[in-house]
Design goal:
Keywords: Carbohydrate metabolism, Cytoplasm, Glycosidase, Hydrolase. Its main location: cytoplasm. The protein has 478 residues and is mostly beta strands. A six-stranded antiparallel sheet has the order 24-35-26-31-32-33, with no helix packed on it. The chain is globular. Bound molecules: beta-D-fructofuranose.
C-alpha cells in the first residue's frame, strides 16, 4: 500500500496536470470555494483557530464522481480571501481506507481536534464505519489518532458525520445514523476529554419517543443554539416530495425545540427546509470569535443516474456556498450573507425610487454581481426578475415565490417554489454558474447552480402591475 506521502505527491501531480484545463472552464466560479480538480461535497471542520478561519471539504481529487474522500483545506483571515492548504486528511489507514468522511473541528488550548468518519468497505461492498480523531498544533499538519467510537448495537454501518460541541462544561457529539430497521436518526454521545465517549442513545428521529419515521438515513447533523432556542440541522434521505417541499434528491433542513442534555433527547416541532433551491446540502456551522454562528453548505446535491454537470468536461465539479450568518428571529431561522462579503464589491449601479408599470421594464447587464432590490410598494399580479436565463417570479395573489432555471441536461425550464406572504426585498449573489437568492433579509433562501449560455448577461425587472423600488447592483471581484 502507498504511504500518505506518495498519495499526496499523486494529488499534487494531478492538480498540476489538470490546472490549465480546469482554469479554462468559463463556468469556473469567481468568488466561491471550489475543488482545485475533482469533486467537492460537504464542508467539514469549520473552525476559527489561531487567527484563521478554516474550511475543510470532502474531496475526491482523482475523479469527478464520489469515491475515497480526502479532506481538502482552505484558510482565510476574513471569510472572503482564501488560501489553499495541503489536504488535511488522506484516506488509507485500516479504519479510513475508503474515505475520510465528513466531520467537524474543535479547539482546546493550542490544539485543533478533527473528528471524522472512517469509511471502510470490503470487496463485496460491505461497509464499516469508525468515528476517528486527528489533531494538530499548527492547523496545517494533522496526526491521526484512529477510532474513538465504534458503531453501537441497534444501528447499521450508516453511522457518520460527527459534529462535536461544548455545552454545560461537557463535550457532546451528534451523529447521523440509520437504525437496524432502516430508519433515519440522530444519536448523541458525551465526553469529558474528547477521547473517551459515552453513548446517550437516539436523540431525535426514528425510535425516539416523539418522532415517527422520517427517511431511511440522516446525514450531517449539527446542533446549535440561537437566542436560547435549540436547532438541529439535519439531512434526511428518503423523503417523498409533498407539494413544494422535498423536491431535491436529498433534503436539508432543521427542527426547532428544546434539548434535554441530561436525558439526551429533544422535544421538537416540524421539519423545515433550510433552502428552497436545487443545490444545497450538508451545511455545517461554527461560532466565530465575534460570536456569530457561521454556516457553509455544499452547493450541490445528489443527482440521478449518470447526468453530469457541464464542468465535468473540465475535470471538476461542485462548490461551497457563500458563508452565511444565522439568526433566530421571530420564530424563523434567517440566513444573511456575512458582512465581510461587502469587500468583494466593485462598481456600483443604483436606481432610487423607480416606478415600473405595465409594459415598462428596467434592464441591466452582469454575470458576476451582487444585487439588492427592495420594494416600497407593489400592486398587481406578478413581479419578475430575469437574471440571464433564470427567472425569479413573485405572484402576489398566491403569495408564491418561484425560481426557474434552465436544466443543464435537458435545456428545459425547471422550478422550485416557496410560500412567501409579502416580498420586501430580493438580495442575490450571482457568480458565473451559481445564484444565491436571499428573500426578505434571509427569511427564505434559494441556492442553485445555473449553466446559462456563457454570453448571457441580461438582467431585467418587470411587473404585470405596478411597483416602486430601489435597486443597487455591484460588480464583484475577489
Ligand atoms: C453527505 C455525505 C456524508 C458523508 C460524506 C461522504 O453528502 O454522504 O454523510 O460523510 O457525504 O463524502
Amino acid at each position: 500500500m502507498s504511504s500518505s506521502i506518495d498519495i499526496l505527491e499523486k494529488v499534487n501531480q494531478q492538480v498540476k496536470k489538470l490546472k490549465p484545463l480546469v482554469g479554462s472552464d468559463p463556468y469556473r466560479l469567481h468568488y466561491h470555494l471550489m475543488p482545485p480538480v475533482g469533486l467537492l461535497n460537504d464542508p467539514n471542520g469549520l473552525v476559527y483557530y489561531k487567527g484563521n478561519y478554516h474550511v475543510f471539504y470532502q474531496w475526491n481529487p482523482f475523479e469527478t464522481t464520489h469515491g475515497s474522500k480526502f479532506w481538502g483545506h482552505y484558510v482565510s483571515t476574513d471569510l472572503v480571501h482564501w488560501k489553499e492548504a495541503p489536504p488535511a486528511l488522506v484516506p488509507g489507514d485500516w479504519y479510513d481506507k475508503n474515505g475520510c468522511y465528513s466531520g467537524s473541528a474543535v479547539v482546546v488550548g493550542d490544539t485543533l481536534y478533527l473528528f471524522y468518519t472512517g469509511n471502510v468497505k470490503d470487496q463485496k461492498g460491505n461497509r464499516e464505519s469508525y468515528q476517528c480523531l486527528a489533531v494538530s498544533d499548527d492547523g496545517i499538519h494533522f496526526k491521526k489518532k484512529g477510532p474513538v467510537i465504534h458503531v453501537p448495537d441497534g444501528y447499521t454501518a450508516h453511522f457518520r458525520d460527527p459534529k462535536v460541541f461544548r455545552k454545560n462544561g461537557k463535550w457532546y457529539m451528534v451523529l447521523g445514523a440509520q437504525t437496524k430497521n432502516k430508519a433515519g436518526a440522530a444519536v448523541l454521545y458525551t465526553s469529558d476529554n474528547l477521547e473517551e465517549w459515552s453513548f446517550l442513545g437516539t436523540f431525535a428521529g426514528s425510535g425516539h419517543r416523539n418522532a415517527g419515521e422520517f427517511g431511511y438515513m440522516w446525514e450531517c447533523p449539527d446542533l446549535l443554539e440561537l437566542n436560547g432556542t435549540d436547532i438541529l440541522l439535519v439531512c434526511p434521505q428518503g423523503m417523498d416530495s409533498q407539494g413544494f417541499q422535498y423536491q431535491n434528491t436529498y433534503q436539508s433542513g432543521y427542527f426547532v425545540g428544546k434539548v434535554n442534555y441530561a436525558e439526551g433527547n429533544f422535544d421538537h416541532g416540524q421539519f423545515v427546509e433550510l433552502d428552497r433551491g436545487f443545490d444545497f446540502y450538508a451545511p455545517q456551522t461554527t461560532i466565530d470569535p465575534k460570536g456569530r454562528t457561521i454556516l457553509f453548505g455544499w452547493m450541490g446535491n445528489a443527482v440521478e443516474g449518470d447526468i453530469q454537470e457541464p464542468t465535468v468536461k473540465y475535470e471538476w465539479i461542485h462548490a461551497l456556498t457563500l458563508p452565511r450568518e444565522l439568526e433566530w428571529k421571530e420564530g424563523k431561522l434567517m440566513q444573511h450573507p456575512v458582512e465581510e462579503l461587502k469587500r468583494l464589491r466593485g462598481k456600483e449601479t443604483r436606481y432610487k425610487d423607480v416606478n415600473l408599470k405595465g409594459e415598462q421594464q428596467l434592464s441591466l447587464r452582469g454575470q458576476v454581481f451582487e444585487m439588492k432590490v427592495s420594494f416600497n410598494s407593489m400592486e398587481g399580479e406578478t413581479l419578475t426578475l430575469q437574471v440571464g436565463e433564470s427567472k425569479l417570479t413573485y405572484d402576489q395573489h398566491e403569495g408564491v415565490f418561484t425560481f426557474q432555471r434552465k436544466n443543464y441536461y435537458t435545456s428545459q425550464q425547471e422550478s422550485r417554489h416557496c410560500y412567501l406572504q409579502d416580498l420586501k426585498e430580493i438580495h442575490l449573489f450571482k457568480d458565473t454558474s451559481s445564484i444565491e437568492i436571499f428573500l426578505n433579509d434571509g427569511e427564505e433562501v434559494f441556492t442553485s447552480r445555473v449553466f446559462d449560455d456563457v454570453q448571457t448577461d441580461e438582467i431585467v425587472v418587470l411587473t404585470s402591475g405596478s411597483v416602486e423600488m430601489n435597486l443597487q447592483k455591484w460588480d464583484l471581484h475577489r
